[in-house]
Amino acid sequence: MSDRLTLLRPDDWHIHLRDGAALPQTVADVARTFGRAIIMPNLVPPVRNAAEADAYRQRILAARPAGSRFEPLMVLYLTDRTQPEEIRQAKASGFVHAAKLYPAGATTNSDSGVTSIDKILPAIEAMADIGMPLLIHGEVTRGDVDVFDREKIFIDEHMRRLVELFPTLKVVFEHITTADAVQFVTEASANVGATITAHHLLYNRNHMLVGGIRPHFYCLPILKRNTHQVALLDAATSGNPKFFLGTDSAPHAQHAKEAACGCAGCYTAFAAIELYAEAFEQRNALDKLEGFASLNGPRFYGLPANTDRITLVREDWTAPASLPFGELTVIPLRAGETLRWRLLEESK
Ligand SMILES: NC(=O)N[C@@H](CC(=O)O)C(=O)O
Ligand SMILES: [Zn+2]
Ligand SMILES: [Zn+2]
Fold it and tell me: Where would I find the Amidohydrolase-related domain in this sequence (predicted)?
């Protein structure tokens, strides 16, 4: 097997860049590898309309390293009050590519999220009409539902109904974590896809909980049992164009993770494609990485694939123990441990 892997430049279809002093770090990390990224809108306050998306986009562009052509693809955050007209205006802007449904209370900064999907049916209808993808954090939030079952119950209670109500709507089931979600997406129509993170391909809940509790593996949806990890690996390496790369890289400051009540989110952007290569290599499926990372996402979103390339080499290196995060620090996934693939800087 070759020790070099050249791919069309990939894109990240789900990332959190945060804002303010964190941007120079988070933007440099994503722009190192990815041509474009779908920028999650869960700021405080969230990105609710085209004007807020434009302002955030300008802050991201200003934080790019010199010479970078990285392109942020902006997303609206749906609230109970989002109007169909705001969706149409956002689409007309040309830089808003999707809208995101966070069930209220499901995850980090989802307090302004949707309390009942029925409240945003007119907005979703407008999205179906104009071909704007609906991105979904697919977990129910009811206190009586076990945290490990929240994705599966969301499928049964909401996903099936949504795709029935809007058969032409483009839906991305974000950061799927279960065999149930793999099956749902596989069996749904071609306009239903899913992103899969590197950490859900490489890890299961044992990595988070056996031999001590490891807060840097804590994210939402939470890591599941090994059988679900296997189903995700099967899906990602299957060649099925419905499945594509979305890191869900979600930095939180060290003190907010290593705490009595720690935040959800893993920071993977510093070595994202390298981590995916490791997962695909474990499956002897490196030949499937380009489709997953560089082709399936643009095809789903109706955008052209990138035309330049990146090269990875199989060469051990040590992940940093910590990274700057504005004035604070973030502990990346795999901190201080060995990574098996390294990106060659600027190959053309
Ligand atoms: N994935 C996470 O655990 N956290 C994300 C939110 C999200 O994507 O649900 C974050 O913004 O921190
Ligand atoms: Zn989410
Ligand atoms: Zn996310």
Answer: 12-310
